[in-house]
Amino acid sequence: MMTDPQYSPATARHGRPAPPVTATERRQANAKPGRNIVAIVGLLLGVAALAVMFVPDVEFVAWPLAGLGLVLAIVGLVQVKKGTAGDRGLAITATVVSAAALLSTAGMLLYSTFLGGGEAGLHLPAVDGDKHSVIFQVTSSGGATVRYGSLSDQRTENAPGSTDAWQGAASYNNGSYLLTLTADTGNSGVNNVISCAITVDGKKVAENSGTTIALCTANVG
Fold it and tell me: In which element (H, E) is residue 34 found?
């Protein structure tokens, strides 16, 4: 049976001989860490998030791209620390880029939702002449309390029990908004079928239904 050759033991501290080092152990000690594939993918996702966040109608994709990129970049840094992968500078760059993309998308959403006012804000009720129209719809067989609008501006109304849909209207010119529509019944013991829907410029962007509560959300702008 073949065994790795052993090299002469070196003198250790306190005069004790160090254990012999085999050829395999020496090759492993001298081997360079491989490419940090995880960090590379994290960097690509971070860059993609920064690019997508400026593209209308698909900017919401920047959130998952930046989040996943940041996770992979951190994993890459951990691999560098453990010595299982190299490219330390690349892993740091991926972390910085992905974090910047995540903060930028959060900043854009917060600005457009909370600070967007005047002509750039979401108008409740709708204003004639705005470029985009929003219709909130709720159908409730037993009646429901309806809350609709955006995160920063909401209205509350009561939808009567009817097979006809209750409607609320809004409008906006520009900006990005997280539209929300909640309908719930005050009596959980009543079998009250509730459905909700949000329509923007004639296109349905969200719908949901439930027995006591229905929640619809949609990113627009």
Answer: none
